[in-house]
Amino acid sequence: QVEAAMLADLEALPGDIGGPLDDAPLPFLIRRRYVLEMYRKYGQGHPFWEARVAARFPEAGEAALIHLAWLDLAGRAATDHRGQVVGGLDVAGPGMDETAATIVEHWRNTETDEDELHVLDRASWPQGDCRGEAVAFFRRWADRLRVIHGDDGGVGHHFLSHLADAKLPIKRHSFGARAADADTYDLHRDQLSWEARQAMEQGRVYGLDDEETQAQAASILWGTSPKGRIVTGATVTADGRRSSQKRGGNSPDRWESFILAAHADRAAAVYAGDLQTTGRYDRRGRQATTGDSP
Q: N vs C: which end of the chain shows fewer Cβ within 10 Å?
């Protein structure tokens, strides 16, 4: 009730820049404008609201796929080692989604003997035909770009074909297909999400400092299905079921473009277990036959 009354008071204040929303009687505290923006963007109950505005531990707790402490660590500055990079692309579906792209450098740190993930670039575009913008974005990295991992579902299939026609290297994924490691994970998306979780828990991610990407990551939950498989998503219940109840927010497009770019090439060869394919495609996005170049 106190929070509701406070938010009602904030909504009633004029929104002029430099007005009451920007007053800072105590400079080390967050501004009223930040509180109002976080409320409008994420709403009460979102992990970002709970931790960064209400100063409470998020209710998700151990059910959260990505802990906020890992996100803070992943926001450290990335280092460009001038090596090859991998792209990730998640194409907007219906609704208020956006098409998102991420560039990650997979770097082997010989001192620590760890594989580090350095986020070097990212972009997002509102729903609509943004194929030209996506081609221009990836071409900036053409001389170092090893592959672009993209979700092939829905409009993503034709979007990826357009990138292939533009001479960009692509690998198609099906988020909704059975995981390659079907004994451990339910869907392909679940396996990619868990791989990203492991990298973040081990402190191997750098440059993931975009607030919206972090907020999307913080909203993902995980559970274990009755068959013992890991299930992830914004509406996953403790027993690993995907609830039809909407938790709030739009599709985590930026987060999903990151988990695609963070995916290791050796695992990305599996396109969809249900289709029994090897995931090898030519540059036009057509499945290659045995012996063809991927």
A: N
